[in-house]
Amino acid sequence: MFVSYHGHSVVKIVTDEQKTILIDPFITGNDLTDLDAEKLKIDVILLTHGHNDHVGDTVTLAKSNNALVVAPFELAEYLSWQGVNTHPMHIGGAKEFEFGVVKLTQAFHGSSYTNYETKEIIYTGMPAGILFTNGGKTIYHAGDTALFSDMKMIGERHIIDLAFLPIGDNFTMGPEDALTAAEWLQAKQIVPIHFNTFPVIQQDPYKFINLLPANNGRVLEVGEGIKL
Ligand code: NI
Ligand code: MN
Hints:
The chain is α/β, with parallel strands linked by helices. It has a single domain, classed as 4-Layer Sandwich (Metallo-beta-lactamase, Chain A). The protein contains six helices and 15 strands.
């Protein structure tokens, strides 16, 4: 599969079977992304949690592409009421789809969708991380999370070929905690995400990868990807 980064927490996967999967498709309002929501052709959307900077263009994209949205249960329910084809899952659960295996992991964060017009916050359950496996290769997208010691267990129980870790600080792990996460996960490659989108999450991703003792970090420029 080919896995590319598109700013903030947006990751695109194109499988060997030519299925296109988007994780956390925050496109409209994401000044860092190179994606154009109107031109995207996708099959699946995977969501880590309900925050607006992760759900992003999900409803529009899912409808225009007739794409399946896989999300934690409460978020999947909420999106299904907006006419989106959803598959609900929850933390610890794995499911083999025709496009690959999805397993949700825990994440220490919040999960809600904010409607700024009505000033309502809709609760969307627990936030998650995503383990995605296809063709014998596994990607871990940590979602938004603090450092948590069960990352050790995730690393022990899964061979992770590529891990996307937030480094922005303030809302998620900062670089220092992400270094420990990288150590615990033992992923073959580490790519930093969730930085520089907003002033409060400014970070230098090169500084972060240069501090990784295993020298296994890689900064993906927006639009750049890795063949697994
Ligand atoms: Ni969040
Ligand atoms: Mn976020």
